[in-house]
Write a structure and sequence with these properties.
Elements (H helix, E strand, L loop, with lengths): L25 H9 L4 H12 L6 H16 L5 H42 L10 E5 L6 E5 L7 E6 L8 H16 L4 E7 L4 H11 L4 E4 L16 E6 L4 E6 L4 H9 L1 H25 L7
Parallel strand pairs: 3-4, 4-5
Antiparallel strand pairs: 1-2, 3-6, 6-7
């Protein structure tokens, strides 16, 4: 009988040789070194595409690491360099995208908080004061009282000239409010630009095409009007100094007409009175003793 054949060329009872110890053909070695040369480029492309959704950090990191490993292993091909570059670009783009999304989310949350805080001003009392304001003709400064017992209400439209705020929304809000206020002589209307100079405020009002009284910086407003942080904001104050409405954002002509005429305030007061009466009735019924059972 012949000798037993050993596939791994090792003696009987020995361990097989490790694959890494065997010499490879140069062609096979080159194939193994370069078969994944396009991997970093693929990861880099995926990283750039998904950077908008802040998902490019993972493929970008994988592409950068694999590209560096291939380069250190001796695979000095241009496609590897391209993969490293695109992966790095994808990582940077993902970081920038994360910062932009974070800033956008923070702006939305802060804006909603400012809107809720402003709209809670309804019912608060404003201290009487007089401001220096530009007459609608734009050529003289006049004394403009915030609380005026000689008129039904005062309407203040707070605006900003900051380029980050849509100027179209601002000019449309001014045009609508000034146009509706002109049809309600018992409502005194003014545009308030607490952070703008006279030239900037006048330029914005002129762009709207509706001349109106302008109050601009520097001004000292009474509380809570000095805390307006969302624009445009419409605040109406009755003759006793009580804030009727504090509304953030542009409003339609029909809603403005109801606000400037006082109809909206009367409706709100009626609804509040009804809600208070219903709450009192529920409290009264809850205090009644239970009827005895027969």
């Amino acid at each position: 009988m012949g000798e037993p054949h050993l596939a791994n060329n090792s003696p009987i009872g020995g361990s097989p040789n490790d694959e890494s110890d065997r010499e490879l053909d140069p062609i096979d070695r080159a194939f193994l070194a370069q078969r994944f040369a396009g991997g970093p480029l693929v990861f880099g492309a995926i990283s750039i595409i998904t950077s908008v959704c802040i998902l490019g950090l993972v493929p970008g990191t994988l592409g950068l690491r694999s590209g560096i490993d291939l380069w250190r292993a001796g695979c000095r091909r241009s496609i590897v360099l391209a993969g490293i570059a695109t992966s790095a670009v994808g990582i940077v783009a993902s970081v920038i995208g994360a910062l932009l999304w974070g800033a956008l989310l923070a702006g939305i949350l802060l804006g909603r908080d400012a809107m809720r805080e402003t709209e809670r001003w309804r019912g608060r009392t404003v201290d009487a004061c007089t401001l220096d304001a530009w007459h609608p003709d734009g050529r003289q400064v006049i004394a403009w009282p915030i609380v005026d017992a000689g008129t039904d209400r005062v309407a203040l439209l707070f605006i900003t000239t900051d380029p980050a705020t849509d100027p179209i929304v601002t000019t449309e809000a001014i045009a609508s409010a000034a146009r509706v206020a002109a049809a309600h002589p018992t409502c005194r209307f003014a545009v308030v630009a607490p952070f703008a100079s006279a030239e900037e405020a006048q330029s914005t009002v002129i762009t709207s095409g509706t001349p109106c009284t302008i109050v601009h910086a520097p001004i000292e407003l009474p509380q809570p009007l000095d805390a307006v942080s969302a624009f445009p904001t419409l605040v109406t104050i009755d003759r006793s100094g009580r804030i009727e409405f504090a509304l953030v954002g542009a409003r339609g002509d029909d809603e403005l007409a109801r606000i400037f005429s006082g109809e909206a305030a009367r409706t709100a007061q009626e609804l509040e009175a009804k809600a208070e009466a219903d709450a009192a009735a529920r409290r009264s019924s809850a205090r009644l003793p239970n009827s005895p059972t027969p």
